[in-house]
Design goal:
This protein is globular. Helix 1 runs parallel beside helix 2 and helix 6 packs across helix 11. The protein is an alpha/beta fold. Helices cover about 40% and strands about 15% of the residues.
């Protein structure tokens, strides 16, 4: 059954809570991600009451085309993931937030959303076309099943030593994989991690967390939103590049180039970070 709420996101989210409390159905609602701002009170209530509402947010970055800067989410992912860091009364994460990297991760994200009966689920999806990631194991779909751990390796380093770990989620993951390939051509051994859900990742064993994103290894995050959404994943010596301003509007490919979301731009930012990392390590060793 389908109900069009109109341009009334808070009303829509409140109706979803009522449907969930009624029972017998799986309530799902959708809108542009930037308008999650209007829905926060109802989402917070759903988190408080442990309601299994599914929120499908699209147009998840500055690449929204002709709709302009009013429709560009910048801080919204960081905001919604604050609920992911909070526990409900049962002591579990109050919201499951998933930003999938490609088609197969999206299928797995939907599976996780349907299976989640104890809290709201937020799916954050892109507007633009995103190519599927190369398979690491037997198939890309089997790789994507590891998304239930919150973060997993989507591009393995060459050899036994990791020179650099790149962390991203959503549409930035494919950019990091392309960047890793370019860096490997220059002799670096690079791992790429898709971090679809920090909340799920923090529920894993310390051993899994450490083997996925090892400490004391240069770790750099790339985000189309505020850098804060990846800060705690990269560690105290890690770096994050993201959007810290809004207001510009242009076609997606133009914004990618202007904002630094190309392989060449990423290589420059990673090189600058590696210099900072080496300086920090030298300073620590000198103490």
């Amino acid at each position: 059954a389908f109900l069009q709420a109109g341009v009334a996101e808070l009303t829509m989210a409140a109706i979803m809570n009522g449907l969930a409390l009624h029972g017998g159905i799986i309530p799902v609602c959708g809108t542009f991600f930037v308008f999650s701002d209007y829905m926060k009170p109802a989402i917070r209530m759903a988190a408080l009451m442990e309601l299994p509402v599914k929120y499908v947010f699209t147009h998840d970055s500055f690449r929204v085309g002709e709709d302009g800067p009013t429709h560009q989410p910048v801080e919204q992912e960081t905001q919604i993931r604050l609920l992911e860091k909070m526990a409900n009364f049962a002591g579990k994460p109050s919201v499951l937030v998933l930003r999938p990297a490609d088609k197969d991760e999206t299928i797995v994200a939907w599976k996780l959303a349907i299976e989640n009966r104890t809290s709201p689920t937020v799916l954050i999806l892109t507007r633009q076309n995103v190519k599927n990631l190369p398979a690491v194991g037997a198939s890309r779909f089997e790789d994507a099943l590891n998304a239930d751990k919150g973060a997993y390796v989507v591009h393995k380093e060459k050899g036994s030593k990791v020179d650099l770990v790149l962390v991203a989620n959503g549409s930035e993951v494919s950019l990091m994989v392309d960047t890793a390939v370019a860096l490997e051509a220059e002799g670096k051994s690079v791992r790429v991690v898709s971090a679809i859900s920090e909340g799920l990742f923090r529920l894993q064993t310390k051993e899994y967390q450490e083997t996925t994103i090892p400490c004391c290894v240069p770790t750099f995050g790339y985000s189309a939103g505020l850098p804060d959404s990846l800060r705690t994943l990269v560690g105290p010596l890690g770096g994050v590049f993201g959007r810290e301003a809004f207001g510009a509007s242009a076609p997606a490919n133009v914004l990618d180039e202007k904002f630094g979301f190309t392989v060449e731009a990423a290589k420059v930012k990673i090189a600058a970070y590696l210099e900072q990392f080496n300086a920090m390590v030298s300073a620590i060793k000198s103490i």
